[in-house]
Amino acid sequence: MELQTIQRAVQEHLYFAVFYEQDLFYIDKVKKIEGEDILMNFAEKSEGNFRCPKRDQEEELKIKFIFYGPVQLYGNDPFTIDIDQIIIAYKCYKKNSLAT
Hints:
two-stranded antiparallel sheet; 41% strand; globular; alpha+beta; five-stranded antiparallel sheet; 2 helices; SH3 type barrels; 23% helix
């Protein structure tokens, strides 16, 4: 799926994969959208899965850092995701963002 299509599909209360510095990405839940700025609550990585944090861990970021989604969650705290597809999308996003 094209990056612009993914970014246009961003909706509140859905989960998306978000690029961060230092070769990291997280699965974040969209809390609020204001133009190009998005308030997100990110999940904590834990041994092969993700957990909802005990306290909200919110961060405001630009929509351009969303590279995959919406992400389907499997299970219930901890939850798992289809990590293979996200890693492929992450590598493509990183390669293209470094090229520009």
